[in-house]
Design brief:
The complex is a heterodimer of chains A (266) and B (292). Chain A has helices at 7-30, 37-44, 47-59, 61-94, 96-111, 118-125, 129-153, 157-165, 170-188, 190-207, 213-222, 226-254. By secondary structure, chain A is mainly alpha-helical. The radius of gyration of chain A is 23 Å and the shape is globular. The model of chain A is unreliable at 262-266 (pLDDT under 50). In chain B, α7 links the parallel β7 (184-188) and β8. Classes of the chains: A mainly alpha (266), B alpha/beta (292). Chain A: The chain crosses the membrane at residues 74-93, 105-127, 133-152, 173-203, 223-250.
């Protein structure tokens, strides 16, 4: 059923989809089909305007400052969340009693929509980057925690027994068996975790800040500047794709041993 | 005590076999010995399942013992007891005269399933086996390279397990086990998942490596031909639960052997017939009572 198409053919199709979507958007907003173009454009802007605005924004050094802030928050949220998740994941996976005692609290904390914490974090950590890092942390922590927990718990018993028979002590097992296994699970959720770190940063900025991409979008929205909102979203999308590409690069480097390569998962 | 006496008696009768095998050791201490070992598991729902019962088995240094039995007869259970991975409910395990507690540090184990660390290359998988002994990394790597050469994988050192075939992975596992130079080798149907030709090649490789540096071996298999072709002595287990040893047969075929060719010897057939007469009873019992 699946006829193989070349790399170029696929790329052409992908571009075509984008162009068609833009063309529909353009036609519906520029020609009087849904109503007065001026009125429609107030709600939906036009692709040309959005691209023009995006270009203008990118040329303005101010946007790089916002991007840098968002990037900082994302990286800090990811690193702290991942470290916390790994530490607690290991601790709980190796200590059944601890895991059993804390189980209901962890489930409850994870079930809570993290967005509601944003105002509290703003109160606790101020309107600077740390309230956003805290929000991102709560999102990343649980993803990494559950994955590491699972990774340590689901180490193949045969691999484990074999390592024991090779004479490894607890430290050796941790280093050569538990740790790599947990990392595998963590990296399998790397895209999601990094994505959530960014969500935490942008939502945090959106809800209260003076800098960052989320702030830019919120600023445009508060004056009904739809073109500005779309331009901000476009920049955000490009930013996300760039970060995702870096993550894929890291993943491919770290998970060379995995059958079928590392790419394409999630 | 009476059980122990019986075990000693069997060992006495085996002296001649070992002479033919080439090791005339006058050593009375077994490399590994199970005395009246019973192993039970608690099943889900609290029911107790006795896997093996009253197992007496001694393996002399340099002796190759094969254990055969129908499925579910607890062959692997015996091996795990000798490895220290399972604690017997009853009876004792002694290793070179000392009671075993915890993991059997003097034994190497070759598992049926893939046991290599998938995140390490073939070379690292073999080299890491030396780490617990405190061997320096550079030396461990060079010795691992040497061992991979001995199992015929000199050009595959940088491959990860998933890039290797089933037979190649077993070769890596064999090198990983042997590089530590353990005095006892425990093998749990190691060549079970391989195809017939690869099994023969692996069997010959194993015999070749074993002949160069004789260890005490317990080799568990469901394949009687393989058991006879490899071993000095074949132990037959009864159908489970509560499997016991129901037969013990010396294999007096001359060494060195070629796994493929030895099966054509008339003597091989005679031994096969004799053991099969015992084993078939248990196999049919296992099928009659078992879920299969």
């Amino acid at each position: 059923m699946n006829r193989p198409i070349g790399r170029l053919g696929l790329l052409a199709l992908q571009i075509l989809v984008g162009l068609v979507a833009l063309a529909i958007w353009h036609v519906l907003t520029v020609y009087p089909i849904l109503g007065q173009p001026k009125q429609v454009q107030f709600f939906f802007s036009t692709p040309v305007d959005v691209l023009k605005r995006t270009w203008a924004e990118m040329a303005n050094p101010e946007i790089w400052n916002h991007l840098w802030i968002t990037l900082q928050e994302t990286i800090l949220a990811f690193v702290t969340g991942a470290l916390g998740g790994i530490a607690f994941g290991f601790l709980f996976a190796r200590n059944a009693l601890l895991a059993a005692v804390f189980d209901p609290y962890i489930k409850a904390a994870n079930a809570l929509p993290r967005v509601v914490l944003a105002p509290i974090f703003a109160l606790w950590f101020g309107l600077g980057i740390w309230s956003k890092v805290a929000l991102g942390f709560t999102l990343v922590f649980f993803i990494v925690f559950f994955n590491v927990y699972q990774g340590v718990r689901e180490v193949s018993p045969v691999v484990l027994n074999n390592a024991r028979m090779l004479g490894m002590n607890e430290r050796g097992l941790l280093r050569h068996v538990y740790w790599p296994s947990a990392l595998t699970w963590m990296f399998s959720s790397l895209h999601t975790a990094v994505g959530f770190a960014l969500v935490g940063a942008v939502v945090g900025e959106y809800l209260g800040s003076s800098a960052g991409l989320g702030y830019k979008i919120h600023e445009a929205e508060s004056v009904f500047d739809v073109t500005g909102v779309f331009a901000g979203m476009l920049i955000l999308a490009v930013f996300v794709i760039a970060i995702d590409a870096v993550v894929t690069l890291i993943e491919n480097r770290l998970l060379v041993w995995r059958p079928g390569g590392a790419g394409g998962s999630v | 005590m009476s059980q122990q006496g019986a075990a000693e008696g069997r060992k006495g009768g085996r002296g001649g076999v070992r002479l033919i095998g080439g090791t005339a050791l006058a050593q009375s201490t077994s490399a590994v010995r199970l005395d009246g070992v019973s192993i039970a598991f608690t099943l889900k729902g609290g029911k107790r399942y006795v896997a093996v019962e009253g197992i007496d088995l001694g393996v002399a240094p340099g002796e190759f013992v094969a254990v055969v039995g129908p499925t579910g007869s607890g062959k692997s259970t015996i091996l795990n007891a000798a490895a220290g991975l399972l604690k017997p409910a009853d009876g004792s395990v002694t290793v070179f005269g000392q009671a075993l507690s915890g993991i059997n540090a003097r034994a190497g184990y070759l598992f049926q399933a893939d046991a290599l660390m998938p995140w390490k290359t073939a070379l690292d998988n073999v080299a890491v086996a030396l780490e617990p002994q405190g061997v320096a990394r550079a030396e461990a790597l060079s010795r691992a390279r040497d061992w991979l050469g001995r199992v015929g994988l000199a050009t595959f050192t940088d491959r990860y397990p998933h890039m290797l075939s089933g037979g190649q992975r077993k070769r890596v596992a064999l090198a990983q086990m042997l590089i530590r130079d353990p005095e006892i080798l425990l093998m749990d149907e190691p060549f079970g998942p391989l195809d017939a030709q690869t099994r023969q090649i692996m069997g010959n490789l194993l015999l070749e490596l074993w002949a160069a540096n004789r260890k005490a071996v317990i080799f568990v298999t469901h394949d009687l031909e393989e058991a006879i072709a490899l071993s000095d002595r074949v132990i037959v287990l009864s159908a489970g639960p509560a499997a016991r040893i129901v037969g013990e047969y010396p294999v007096t075929l001359p060494r060195p052997r070629d796994i493929a060719e030895i099966r054509l010897e008339p003597q091989f057939h005679a031994i096969y017939k004799e053991i099969w007469a015992c084993l078939r009873v248990e196999v049919s019992r296992a099928y009659a009572t078992g879920p299969a």
